[in-house]
Amino acid sequence: MITSSFQASVAVCALVILHVSALDTFIAAVYEHPVLRPKATETPVSRDDALLHMNKNIDILERAIQQAAAQGAQIIVTPEDALYGWKFTRETIFPYLEDIQDPRVAWIPCQDPHRFGDTPVQARLSCLAKNNSIYVLANIGDKKPCNSHKSTCPPNGYYQYNTNVVYDAKGQLVARYHKYNLYSEPQFDAPENPELVTFNTAFGKFGIFTCFDILFHDPAVTLVKDLQVDTILFPTAWINVLPLLTAIEFHSAWAMGMRVNLLAANIHHVQQNMTVVFMHQIRPKYSIMI
Question: CN hydrolase domain spans which residues (predicted)?
């Protein structure tokens, strides 16, 4: 395990060899984020206060994205819970959530921010991708209204999902993944079935899952074995636990065993043993520390 005494961000870019026809190399950045967490409360904050807090974290992410793009990165992965932290109830997380569309709607939030209602966080993330010509993976919360007469519908009338979104270099939403294997996350619901989410680029085929998902067959193994992705994007809020669950050892063993590129971005919170960003490359050439 690698730890640090500095509450500083860490970003890593690496040149990765891929077996793809269009390009056989790409530069990817993974970002270790010292998330600014809101004060603990049992009362939900206002939507405006939630947005103010998330924008403070996005301000930090923006600098990392700009720095990665300036060094030639084509894609950047940011951590799970990077916009607001992780200590919430179903009620207190709700002001931080937005309705995230299926990517099939072909939407660039940066250009059309009001198309699907109140989506300022998605619009800003889309603009960060578009303005820096880089793919951006971010982790945010999704809310989906449900029929209150359905037995699985929560009392507030919404399913709430821990969600990864990916925007391409033009700012278009190209992927959305709802985390299936939750770990001590009472604020979120698991989708009915594991989602197998992939997207194609000029530099390879990517799959997505989140944190605790890596310990289970679905969706993690299925993405690699059946859908044959080149690279896994893995945002996480991983707590390093000896002897078997430290990030570098576990993630590298999984990636080596599956023979796939793994781009892991973790929270930076030393007091809770949450550190380390990681890249496993099938055939590593060199890496650049930013």
Answer: 36-290
From CA 201, how far away is CA 23, in angstroms rounded? 10
* CA distances for 148 relative to 54, 152, 157, 178, angstroms: 30, 8, 6, 21
Range of the domain at 110: 10-289
Alpha helices in 205-284 (DSSP H): 222-225, 247-258
- For residue 15, the number of C-alpha atoms closer than 13 Å in the C-beta half-sphere is 8
CATH of the domain at 167: 3.60.110.10
Take residue 23 and report the two structure tokens written for it. Answer: 């390009």
pLDDT one-digit tens code per residue, 84-116:
999 999 999 999 999 999 999 999 999 999 999
Q: 23-65: per-residue pLDDT in tens?
A: 578 899 999 999 999 998 999 999 999 999 999 999 999 999 9
Which positions are annotated as active-site residues?
Answer: 80, 179, 211
Does residue 185 belong to any structural domain of this protein?
yes
- Asked whether residue 146 is assigned to any structural domain, the reply reads yes
pTM of structure: 0.90
